[in-house]
Amino acid sequence: xxQWYSKYLQVYEKPFSEAPPSVVEEVRQNIxxxxxxxxxxxxxxxxxxxxxxxxxxxxSLSEMKCKYPVEIIGVDNESKDRTAEIFxxxxxxxxxxxxxxxxxxxxxxxxxxxGKYHINIDSDxxxxxxxxxxxxxxxxxxxxxxxxxLWSYIPDEAHSKFGLMVYEAARDLHLxxxxxxxxxxxxxxxxxxxxxxxxxxxxIRTDIIRGEDGYLALQLKQFGKIAFxxxxxxxxVTGYGTVGADGSxxxxxxxxxxxxxxxxxxxxxxxxxYIDEDSNLIKKK
Length: 285
Description:
This is Glycosyltransferase family 2 protein. By secondary structure, the chain is an alpha/beta fold.
């Protein structure tokens, strides 16, 4: 059975030189039709050397079905490949962030966002048609200041559909259990949206390698609730990233289970602050 993202795979993991001009033009026209001068929601894409993924991400976004006025902007984290050129070719206004880190890139997107809500997404990920609308629907609920959804991985020769299904089901269960007392631990940047004004008040950390999304969620809790959208209609699809860094899917699962079991008691108590690990701090030059 064909998945909603199947057609985008023809340009995923491919250099921009192999992208059909007709697809680039289609994406350009679709995005031009979406852009609003008075957006309710800003979608900002951060990318560092994402030439092989960015077009697929933009293609998926360009076909969104959304009742809210939208603006789509890009952040190029001073890439060495054709990332910036793809933003240009697709007619996406973009900003160059010369300081390298997810934190700096996300902060750049937040700084330039004009919408009441900000959805800051990753360029190596594809989003279903109702993703933006469903995230904003959740943010429109009283008392909600941030919302996170879930994500799946693209099946390939190294990762079976069944294996991925088991892995994702176990991970989703863990994220669900965590979300009751410590929702900040269940938030991920590739599927996170929030109230722009509150995020600007708290800021986004730029001094850590990873975890800026969870830390932002922790700070946003002072203004209201972090909600979760678990519908498959809002489920993004991405590559393997940190999962792939652990080797096989089984090994990745084992690493995460061991880590999860060590901290199992902590998910039932709220925390107001976290201690930084030295290995996660960005060393100042």
